[in-house]
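Running co-folding for zinc ion.
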Amino acid sequence: MSQTFEYLLRSLFVRCSYVGLDCNCIIFGMNEKEVMDETILHMFEYHAINPEEMTSEMKSKIRKNIHLYRNSLRAQILRDIPDVSAMLLPIV
Ligand SMILES: [Zn+2]
């Protein structure tokens, strides 16, 4: 298993679109704070939203939409392959 894959499995993410922006970006981090910081940076770099302009409502929206990447992968796999072998379930 590559390091990148392990990293992905343990990481958290937020989709920019979940926060209400018309954007396909997914922001990753190893913990909630890292995702928050990266998202705030992304908002600034890609959407010209200054960190100072960010309302606490917006920040809590980000926080609420941070998910474990592993869970989202599992949901995606189960949706795309509904008859995924029971033997595979422990690893997805
Ligand atoms: Zn974005």
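Result summary
The longest strand covers residues 12-15.
Residues 3-80 form one domain.
Job closed.
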